[in-house]
Amino acid sequence: MKKKLIAMLLAATMIFSLAGCGDKSNNDDNNGGSSTPTESTPAPDSNGGQDESTPAPADEVEKPSEITILVDGTVFTEPNAQDKFIAKLEELIGIKINVIQPDHDAYYDNVGQIIAGGDWPDVMILSSTYYSGYAAEGVLWDMTEAWENSELKQRQEAYDGAGVVEGVKIDGHLYGMPAARGNGCVTYVKQAWIDQYNNGKVPTNYAEYSEMCANFVANGKYAVSAAGFIGSEAPYVNYLPEFYQDGYPSFYQKDDGTWVDGFTEDSMKEALQRLADAYAAGWIDPTTLTNGTKDCRNKFYSDDFGVFTYWAGTWATNLKTNLENNGLDSELVALPPIAEVGAYLDRIPPVWCISSTCKNPEGVFKYFIEAMQDGGDVQFLWTYGVEGVHWSTAAETLYEGTETEKVYQEGEFHGLDNLENPGTQYTKAHIDPALALVDLANDPADESRAAENLASSTLFAQNSKLAVLVPTTDAMSQYNGDLTTLKNGLIAKVVMGEMTIDEAYAQYEAEHGAEWSQMIVDSLNNR
Amino acid sequence: MKNSKKTKPVKSHKPLGVRINRYKGFYIMFLPVFVFAIIFCYLPMLGIRYAFTNYNGIKEPTFVAFANFKRMFEMPGFWSAFTNTLQISIIKLILTTFIAVVVSIFLNEIFNLHFKKVVQTIIYLPHFLSWVVTASLFSLILAPTAQGLVNSFLVSIGAVQPDKMIYFLGSSKWWRGAYYIINIWKETGWQTVIFMATLAGLNTELYEAASIDGAGRWGKMYYITLPALKNTILTVLILNLAKVMNLFESAFVLQNDAVLDTANVLETYIYYQSFNSGAIPNYGYTTAVGLFKSLVGCVLVLICNHLSKKVREGRGIV
């Protein structure tokens, strides 16, 4: 009897375990929203059901009552009071929001699964790769006309933000709306090193830059570090721009509109030679190949090297603060791009897309996407979060009695203690105020932003160009994985002196690299 | 006799329903496991069909028969990953097993129980470190800089010049050696557990008898310890041989662009095909590679089963 009882209990436990799994997926389904009123049971009063091919005039667009959004960790997570953020958003825009937020690191695995499952959310955040791929496959709603006729476009034009939106168009069609600029990297040089080893001279061209690197190395340290010789995502060359210059190892569109593979161009071969020479001369960190970005930052904070190309804006403050914490001179020069570089690369920003199965895309665009950049309360919420949860203007002291104690006066805007990582303050929500595409009225950041943050952002904004969005093709899907692996391997070996440039390109030919590249180029040009 | 009398009528005469009712406790206990296996082990196998299609996770898969396999066999990257997988896995297996045996024998020779336990604990510990931590640790130890422990030592003894330090993890020539050493460091201790268990079961009278017969330490080790371990060694080798195609984490965290020609294995090849293409991947192709890997794995299991039956007197592993 006892054995039977134990058997029953064990069986029940397993059944409940399985039921638990089932519950989770059910919850996901409920959150999945597309099967909620927005999709499988479209309620006329919630989602309209208008003809998707002809957008209704703006004043006739019906507000959806409920939408489902698929977001990554750039939107407040549950430990960061997502519920309060969404409640406030619902209050401001008058739409019920169902949020699906997979783990940030596995976001695109989940996006793929959800799209493959066919139960698409109304709105989703996508990176450039998935954006162009899903647009080509008809997953995304074409919002070109909605944007062209919107007040949002006017607001963005008034703030120089419309160019970023133009940059994410695919063949003249817009399938996703960036909430901010993609941002990019600028080259920071330690002022103390410039003063001590380079006679205070800030380089303006490659010859001067090379001289500076040589001077740094002559004093027993290497000059530059990066996480790999080539980045893992577009625009690939943004961590070592002074060496790549106009060389580009992947596909880009020329001024005449034709697509080419930059890897086979002379400019790339010259870039490889510069990198190889710099590595051989000891200018570049010998462990570059195995560095992660965190390794680079830690070495920079430990004064192992003096030239670091890293993100503009908030990171300028982070770098400075960490140098200070290590007792080092924290003054950094954000270097204007040297003459040969011309402009830093502004990466393609992630975009907010509306799925093609959304029943009322015009309504979602007008009342959700457009509202996100209204220049007022909704944009403020997306930029800073909820008052009393993520920010405050109350008189108070944070981190009292600690080394990082901060005292704020009544009316002084400040981020509150991070709920997930106590000891750090919130600086922004989803939209980085420094990268906004629309002017935010009464933006407190104008006063509260650190000088180095503002300086690097301004420098980047004035000296950057938008990276090119590469459309997806079948040939790219078939061959670019192998091609990228081959290219990256050859670049690493040339830079480290394991093979010459000629040997590398001979191997590139022999291992079908040129053949695959041509197939991809043809597919891009024949779309 | 009593038992056979009891079971025989049940087997041959009682109806199935009665028998199920009689053992319903077992059936109830078995049911969730059965459902679990169906849902999580067998239903996912339906995904195998994608290997014969082009499928990007959006549109309906289009049947392409064996086109993905044809493409796979034409790709130099695939063959490189395939041969790397076999070479790295098999050499790693042989090396770690051999070292584990040697360490076990040495541990067995330690008479001070306290010291023996301390040594065992120390060599077990690396097994519990994640591969990510291990990779970070060895990136520092093997760095081609003054901070790199190994290179500093080599420079201090004059084996390498300070300006020509060896980039162990960044050079195709050195990567595999470094990889094997890291694996030995991490996994040897854990593998000694099974050999130590075998040795613990050895009759000490054998050693006493050998001593009376004039055998020294080496003699006892050669004539008693090693033969006693022979079956265990073969069993461990055979069981692990069936898993040689499953290699991802250790290779992935230690590899980089410069060493992929020697370090890329099938599972990392699939990963790069999925996430390195700058486009929505063709899951049909990656499924085909995965299916091929599984087939090779199945063949290896069958071979191992055959070998196991020979070595272990008819006892297979499946």
Low-confidence segments of chain A, given as residue ranges, are 14-56
Quickly count the helices of chain B: 15
Percent of residues in helices of chain B comes to 55-70%
Determine the most extensive contact between two protein chains. Answer: A-B, 56 and 46 residues
* SS class of chain B: mainly alpha
Largest sheet of chain A: 5 strands, mixed
Strand % of chain B is under 5%
Main structural class of chain A: alpha+beta
Describe this structure in words.
- The complex is a heterodimer of chains A (527) and B (318).
- Chain A is globular and about 65 Å long.
- In chain A, strand 1 (66-70), helix 3 and strand 2 form a beta-alpha-beta unit.
- In chain A, helix 14 (314-325) crosses helix 18, helix 19 (474-495) runs antiparallel to helix 20 and helix 19 (474-495) packs across helix 21 (513-525).
- Chain A contains 21 helices and 16 strands.
- In chain A, the strands form six sheets. Chain A has a five-stranded mixed sheet with strand order 2-1-3-11-4, sandwiched between helices. A three-stranded antiparallel sheet of chain A has the order 8-5-9. A two-stranded antiparallel ribbon of chain A has the order 6-7.
- Chain A has helices at residues 2-32, 44-47, 82-93, 107-117, 128-136, 144-148, 151-158, 162-167, 191-197, 206-218, 241-244, 266-280, 293-301, 314-325, 361-372, 377-384, 445-448, 451-462, 474-495, 501-510, 513-525; strands spanning 66-70, 96-100, 123-126, 176-178, 185-190, 251-253, 259-261, 307-311, 332-335, 344-346, 351-354, 391-392, 396-398, 406-408, 414-415, 464-466.
- Helix content of chain A is 43%, strand content 11%.
- With 318 residues, chain B is mainly alpha-helical.
- The radius of gyration of chain B is 26 Å and the shape is flat.
- Chain B has 15 helices and two strands.
- Mean pLDDT of chain B is 89; it is low at 1-7.
